[in-house]
Amino acid sequence: MRLENKVAIVTGASSGIGRNVALLFAKEGAKVVAAARSLDKLETLENEVKEGGYPGEIYSVPTDISKDEDLKNLVDSALSKYNTIDVLVNNAGILDQYKSLENIDEDLWMKVFDVNVHSIMKLSKLVLPTMIKNKKGSIINTASVGGLHGMRGGLAYVTSKHAVVGMTKNIAYTYADDGIRTNAIAPGSVSTNIASSISDPDNKTLEKLMAGVKIFPKFAQPDQLSPAYLFLASDESSFVNGEVLVVDGGWTAY
Ligand SMILES: NC(=O)c1ccc[n+]([C@@H]2O[C@H](COP(=O)([O-])OP(=O)(O)OC[C@H]3O[C@@H](n4cnc5c(N)ncnc54)[C@H](O)[C@@H]3O)[C@@H](O)[C@H]2O)c1
Fold it and tell me: Looking at residue 91, which CATH number applies to its domain?
């Protein structure tokens, strides 16, 4: 019960890493405000937690994180139901078809930045006044090893995840005095649905990526990532701030 009575918003909670984080947080007693676009998938998650007799609960709030009005509704809904927000997990993200510089178009670039970067800034800004008032809070951003290295995705994805790392550190230091901790997790490769969005991959990027795939140990399952989120959400990490926790099975240790 490391998150007993804590209120945690988790974005991208309908699948993959986010779904697993939502389940683990509910197992540890949290009231999880689960955000994703599909109400059906959120309700399935909600029922799993109810039927499993978890000590925590799921509150589903359908949200497209690229829409300002949805982000506002997410925070308003969390506050009107629970009156506070202790943890924000900015997890939802998309890939970029592995497009290289010569093949990226502005629409794709903007879409990747809207989902992977702008939403984190906007949602964190909306949650900030509550955390400042409480003098505590934990913001956890899902970055990627692509936020630390150049060749773990296409141009837009890699650039967006580097931005997530920079944003994490800036917010962490700026609000350390307010009791707010901001950290990132950098997964390596995880078996989730994220790659299913790729319909027209860029061969140039793929060819370069393959060099790194040869030294890649193995895919993680989402439940090998969620304990790292639990650590950063809980008071056990009370002095960890501005950190990027790499959870990649040793891939980038090579
Ligand atoms: N799977 C990997 O190998 C890997 C590696 C490094 C980083 N990541 C990061 O992990 C995070 C989670 O991805 P995942 O691997 O669990 O993939 P996933 O596709 O299973 O989950 C992504 C979630 O984000 C949601 N999402 C996407 N766009 C959204 C939008 N506009 N509004 C609301 N929700 C939206 C999806 O619906 C889904 O629930 C992402 O930020 C991703 O970049 C994944």
Answer: 3.40.50.720
Beta-bridge partner residues of 214: none
- Which DSSP symbol is given to 115? I
Q: What is the mean pLDDT of residues 28-33?
A: 98
**Atom number, ligand 1, closest to the C-alpha of residue 189:** 3
CA of 133 to the centre of ligand 1 (A): 30
H-helix or E-strand containing 46?
helix 39-51
Would residue 1 count as lying in a domain?
A: no
Residue 2, in any domain of the structure: no
Q: Is residue 72 part of a domain?
A: yes
Q: How many domains does the chain have?
A: 1
pLDDT at residue 196 in the model: 86
Domain that holds residue 205: 7-253
Residues with CB under 6 A from ligand 1: 11-12, 14-18, 36-37, 63-66, 91-94, 115, 142, 144, 187, 189-190, 192-194
- Band (218; pLDDT cuts 50, 70, 90): confident
The count of other CB atoms within 10 Å of the CB of residue 90 is: 31
Asked whether residue 56 is domain-assigned, the answer is yes
Q: Which atom of ligand 1 is nearest to the CA of 114?
A: 31
CA of 118 to the centre of ligand 1 (A): 15
Distance (angstroms) between ligand 1 centre and the Cα of 12 equals 6
